[in-house]
Amino acid sequence: MDIFFSRFSVVLLVLISWNSFTTTEAYDALDPNGNITIKWDIKSWTPDGYMAVVTIFNFQQYRHIEAPGWQLGWSWRKKEVIWNMVGAQATDQGDCSKFKGNMPHCCKKTPTVVDLLPGTPYNQQISNCCRGGVISSWAQDPATAISSFQIFVGQSGTTNTTVRAPRNITLKAPGPGYTCGPAQHVPSTKFMSPDNRRKTQALLTWNITCTYSQFLARKTPTCCVSLSSFYNETIIPCPTCSCGCQNSSLAGSCVDPKIASVVPALGKNNLEPLLQCTNHMCPIRIHWHVKTNYKEYWRVKVAITNFNYNMNYSQWNLVVQHPNFDNITQLFSFNYNPLNPYADINDTAMLWGIKFYNDMLSQAGPLGNVQSELLFRKNPSKFTFEKGWAFPRRIYFNGDNCVMPPPDAYPWLPNGTPNLETSPFIILLITFISVLILM
Ligand SMILES: *[C@@H]1O[C@H](CO)[C@@H](O)[C@H](O)[C@H]1NC(C)=O
Ligand SMILES: *[C@@H]1O[C@H](CO)[C@@H](O)[C@H](O)[C@H]1NC(C)=O
Ligand SMILES: *[C@@H]1O[C@H](CO)[C@@H](O)[C@H](O)[C@H]1NC(C)=O
Ligand SMILES: *[C@@H]1O[C@H](CO)[C@@H](O)[C@H](O)[C@H]1NC(C)=O
Ligand SMILES: *[C@@H]1O[C@H](CO)[C@@H](O)[C@H](O)[C@H]1NC(C)=O
Ligand SMILES: *[C@@H]1O[C@H](CO)[C@@H](O)[C@H](O)[C@H]1NC(C)=O
Ligand SMILES: *[C@@H]1O[C@H](CO)[C@@H](O)[C@H](O)[C@H]1NC(C)=O
Ligand SMILES: *[C@@H]1O[C@H](CO)[C@@H](O)[C@H](O)[C@H]1NC(C)=O
Ligand SMILES: *[C@@H]1O[C@H](CO)[C@@H](O)[C@H](O)[C@H]1NC(C)=O
C-alpha cells in the first residue's frame, strides 16, 4: 500500500511538472525571448546596387549552431545578383551567362550562403566571420554568438525607395525547427568607430527574426537519461528505443563497439549520425548518479556519453531542471548559469564545459564522455530521497529534450532505511585513524 502510494505520487509529481512545461511547443518557457535575429545593414550605395553587412545574432540562451554550421537562404525580389562577398560565400554561382567580363559571385534567384572556414586569409575576412558557421549560445559566450558577412549586391535599385528586402529568408542549416519572419524596416543601426570617437549609421536597416520550435523540428529524440543512486544498486538504463530501435527499418545504421576501430567514420562532423549499437540508440546519454549524502549537503555525479562516431560536439550544453538548483553550492569542472525565466522559480540551470578543458565532447569511443559533480545544500523543507525527488525533472542536451525513464522505474529507497547520512564527523574520524595507521 505504501509503495503503491509513493509510486503513484511520483507519477503525479512528474506529470504535474511535465504538464507545466509542455503547454505550447513553439514557445520555450525556459527561454521565452530566445530568437535568432538577422540584421541587414545597407552601408553604402554602389553604381548598380549596394553594399551591406549582414549580421546573425543568436539571442538564444542555450541553443547554438555547431559544425557544419549555418546556411542562410533567401529569395531575391528583383533581378539582383551578388557581385562579391567578404567573410562568407554562396554555395552555387548559378547561371551567370548573361554577364561578360566581370563575373558576379552568384546569379541565383535563391542563393544559399555559408560562412568561411577558420584560417581564411585576412583580406577575405570581416569581424565575426569565418568560424565555419559555428555560433555559440548567448549564455555560453555572447562574443561568439554573432556571425557577420559583407555582401555587394547589383541590379537591386540604388536608393532607399527602390531597393527591396530579400524574402523567404531561411536558416537552411541547422535546418527544420527555425522559422524566419519577413524582413522589417527598422531604425538604422548606429555604428561606433573602434576608438569610440566617431558614430556612423546604416543607410537602411532590415531585421529578420527567426524562432525555434521543437514541434516544427519534429525530430526524433537525440538523447536519453539513465539514473542510479548510492542507496539502491539498481541502475535504471535509458528506456529501450528512446531514439530508435536497432531492429527498425534504419537497422544497420549502428556499429558494434567491438569493431569500432574499423568503423567507416567520416572524421568530420556530419548531421547524419553513425551510432554505436545500444538499446536506446541515442547519440547522447546523460547519467545522473545520486552519489553521497552528507548532513547538510548531497552530491550528484553527472556524466555525458557520446555514442555518435560522426560528431565531436563543440560547446555542448545541458539544461537541467531540479528543485534544488536554488541551493546549488558547488559545481566541479562545468560552467553554470541559472536560467530564471520567472524570477520566483530558480530550479533550472544551464551547464556547459570549460573552455579548452571539456567544452568538446569527443566522438564515440574512449574519449567520448565528460563528467562533473554537483553539490547541493539541503533545504530541510523540501529535501528527501523519497519518491525520486533526487532525480532531475527533465534534461536538455544542446536544446533537445532527453527521454527520461518512466518515473515508476526510478531507484527506490529501501524500506525502513535508518540513517543514510555519511556524517562529516565519521569521515574525519576515518581519515584521522588512517593517518594514525600510516604513521
Ligand atoms: C529577440 O531576442 C532579443 C534578445 O533577447 C529581444 O530583445 C527581442 O525582443 C527578441 N525579438 C523578438 C521578435 O522576439
Ligand atoms: C530615404 O532617404 C531619404 C533621404 O536620404 C529620407 O528622407 C527618407 O526618410 C528615407 N526613407 C526611408 C523609408 O528610409
Ligand atoms: C516564398 O514565399 C512565398 C509566400 O510567402 C511562397 O509562395 C513561395 O513559394 C516561396 N518561395 C520559395 C522559393 O520558397
Ligand atoms: C533589430 O536587430 C538588432 C540586432 O539584433 C536589435 O538590436 C534591434 O533591437 C532590432 N530592432 C528591432 C526594431 O527589432
Ligand atoms: C524491436 O525491438 C524492440 C526492443 O528491442 C521490441 O520491443 C520490438 O518489439 C521489436 N520490434 C520488432 C518489429 O521486432
Ligand atoms: C573529432 O576530433 C578528433 C580529434 O581532433 C579527430 O581525430 C576526429 O576525426 C574528429 N571526429 C569528427 C567526427 O569530427
Ligand atoms: C538563482 O540562483 C543563483 C545561483 O545560486 C543566484 O545567483 C540567483 O540570485 C538566484 N535567483 C533567484 C531569483 O533566486
Ligand atoms: C535555498 O535557496 C532559497 C532561495 O534562494 C533560500 O530562500 C533558502 O534559504 C536556501 N536554503 C538553504 C538551506 O540555503
Ligand atoms: C531499488 O529500486 C528498484 C527499482 O525501482 C526496486 O525494484 C528495488 O526494489 C529497489 N531495491 C531496494 C533494495 O529497495
Low-confidence stretches: 1-25, 423-439
CATH class of the largest domain: Mainly Beta
Tally of separate helices: 3
**What is the molecular shape?**
elongated
Q: C-alpha Rg, in Å?
A: 26 Å
Q: Find the count of extended strands (DSSP E, 2+ residues).
A: 28
Bound molecules: 2-acetamido-2-deoxy-beta-D-glucopyranose
Structural class: mainly beta
Beta strand %: 25-35%
CATH topology category name of the largest domain: Immunoglobulin-like
Q: What's the domain count?
A: 2
Major β-sheet profile: 7 strands, antiparallel
Beginning-to-end CA distance, first to last residue: 54 Å
CATH level-two architecture of the largest domain? Sandwich
Helix content: under 10%
Mean pLDDT: 86
Domain COBRA C-terminal: 222-411
Main location: membrane
Keywords: Glycoprotein, GPI-anchor, Lipoprotein, Membrane, Signal
Protein name: COBRA-like protein
List its salient traits.
single chain; 439 residues; mainly beta; Immunoglobulin-like; 2 domains; 7-stranded antiparallel sheet; 6-stranded mixed sheet; 3 helices; 28 strands; 8% helix; elongated; disordered N terminus; disordered C terminus; binds 2-acetamido-2-deoxy-beta-D-glucopyranose
Task: Describe the fold and architecture.
It is a single chain. The protein is mainly beta and 439 residues long. It folds into two domains: 36-216, Immunoglobulin-like (Sandwich), CATH 2.60.40.290; 222-428, Sandwich (Immunoglobulin-like). Helix content is 8%, strand content 35%. The protein has helices spanning 2-19, 214-217, 424-438; strands at 36-46, 49-58, 71-75, 81-86, 88-90, 112-115, 146-154, 167-173, 178-180, 184-186, 190-192, 199-201, 204-212, 223-229, 232-236, 254-255, 275-276, 284-293, 297-306, 313-314, 317-321, 328-332, 334-338, 348-353, 360-361, 369-377, 394-397, 400-401. Strands 1, 2, 4, 7, 9, 10 and 13 form a seven-stranded antiparallel β-sheet that branches. Strands 15-14-18-19-26-22 form a six-stranded mixed β-sheet, with no helix packed on it. A hairpin with a 2-residue loop joins strand 27 and strand 28. The longest helix has 18 residues, at 2-19. It is elongated, with a radius of gyration of 26 Å. Mean pLDDT is 86; it is low at 1-25 and 423-439. The protein binds 2-acetamido-2-deoxy-beta-D-glucopyranose (NAG) (9 copies). One 2-acetamido-2-deoxy-beta-D-glucopyranose binds at residues 326-327, 346, 377, 379.
